[in-house]
From TrEMBL:
Residues 178-215 form the CAP-Gly domain. It is found in: Cytoplasm. Belongs to the TBCB family. It comes from the Eukaryota. It holds the Pfam family CAP_GLY. Keywords: Chaperone, Cytoplasm. This is CAP-Gly domain-containing protein. SMART domains: CAP_GLY. One of its GO terms (cellular component) is microtubule plus-end.
Length: 236
């Protein structure tokens, strides 16, 4: 038994991708998971799922003395950490928004804000603010996009704690959409939906499930190195 395993760790309040040494015992793992999930070691019940879309548990890490390698864990399986005594650790209450007062903004107030999505689209001439047909020849004028092929980037994600980083491989109009500019990205990890081609048209080359196409407003270009998801005893 050697090496490490990369898995998704899920709890009522957290979701993250982690790498663990297969020699780590379940008891040692629980100590790390307490720092990640906030669930005390005695209250942890860890089940293993094949994927996040499959809710059926295929096993349980129920022997604190056994190493992770004993359970035959595979990369990108899911460790689902349940709290057997949530009343003692407030598990789930961090994500309960029923008691949070709703913030509402009138349409006129929203239009005055300088940090809104509406203002961003107006400033960058995106969506309905961007494309204008030339009255002389019917041509479509595409908005300028400050995203360069080859640039490192991070893509906006709706999943808390998940960073989707990669490299820009394509910028321009596509055949799968009637209008607008799309950014083709090769992810560092298999978070994508294709291999750089859509509906039989190839826009760039990458491995299957590493490619994705997103709108420019979801892309942040910058110095985004490939993340090292390895975690030792002094990191959480």
């Amino acid at each position: 038994m050697s090496g490490t395993v990369t898995v998704f760790v899920k709890s009522p309040d957290t979701r993250s991708e982690r790498r663990f040494d297969l020699h780590l015992t379940v008891g040692q793992l629980k100590g790390k998971l307490e720092l990640i999930t906030g669930i005390p070691v005695p209250n942890q019940a860890i089940s293993v799922l094949n994927s996040e879309t499959d809710a059926q548990a295929i096993g349980a890490l129920d022997d604190d003395s056994k190493p992770l390698g004993f359970y035959g864990l595979r990369d990108y399986q899911v460790m689902n950490v349940a709290d057997t005594n949530p009343s003692a650790s407030f598990t789930g209450q961090l994500s309960d928004v029923s008691q949070v007062q709703k913030f509402e903004l009138s349409e006129s107030e929203y239009q005055k804000r300088q940090d809104s999505v509406l203002m961003y689209k107006q400033r960058h001439k995106l969506g309905r603010f961007g494309e204008k047909k030339d009255e002389d020849n019917g041509a479509v004028s595409l908005p300028e996009v400050n995203v360069q092929v080859g640039a490192r980037c991070e893509v906006e994600s709706s999943e808390e704690g998940l960073s989707k980083r990669g490299t820009v491989r394509f910028v321009g109009p596509t055949k799968f959409a009637k209008s607008g500019i799309w950014v083709g990205i090769e992810y560092d990890e298999p978070f994508g939906k294709n291999d750089g081609s859509v509906q039989g048209e190839r826009y760039f080359e990458c491995r299957p499930n590493y490619g994705v196409f997103v709108r420019p407003e979801k892309v942040k270009v910058g110095d985004f190195p490939v993340e090292d998801i390895n975690m030792d005893d002094e990191e959480i």
